[in-house]
Amino acid sequence: MSWTSQAEGLIRFYDAAPAAAPRPALLWLHGGGFAAGSIDMPEADAVARALQARGVAVASVDYRLVGPGVRYPAPSDDALAAWDWLAAHRDALGLDPTRTAIGGASAGGNLAAGALLRLPRTGPRPAGAVLAYPTLLAEQPVPGAALRAALDADPDADRFGPAVVREMYEGFLGGPVERAPLAAVPGTASPEDLAGYPPVLMINGDVDELRVSGEHFAHRLHAAGRPVLVHLEPGTTHGHLNRPAEAGFGPSVDRIAAWLHGLPGSATTGLPEVTA
Description:
Rossmann fold
């Protein structure tokens, strides 16, 4: 399972059986709270290799991390540049444009969702979006009673309360969340903003407060008439794709691969398939 660097080091490309062209592909952005993580972490490398083994080509993005001199929109700009590269090379790589998607986990899910709001309505666009336990709101709704009870019972999983999330976004933005651009907080998108949004597969953690922002966005997509399918991975906490040894990793990767192979008809408009 070899990889090659492309696009001036921005992308690590994991090819999938070149003889089996055209094949699905995923532009993938790891998580890490916008300020941490790398393309070597399991959430990037192990996920890419697992999808590669399931016949999906993956372009893993080594976007700039928030820190001194780096704030929004720098990571988002990198996501857009990576998409431009992948779209320009789809034919040469033998990728199927109707099954070439964008996606990410946690903060990477934010960058993927936000990139779709920044891309022009004309020109090559992703055929779908894969959002794994994404953070999409700087100010989250209060979790429901069942989720709150599950978080209270598992203090190690209870890591994303309102103050923590707000601080993360303030670091991302370099300023107050009240002045955040839409693409930095995709969960606030209106039906008009979501016109033309592609089909979405969302996989949320079971005991994860960030799940409320994902579910909020899923309902906004549904209200806008956009195809969206949400799965709650049983028994998982935030970041399970970064822990390949855990039981939830394999089923989530299987679900992503099957969905990508099935595009453009693999997502249906509807409310989340699993709610709690």
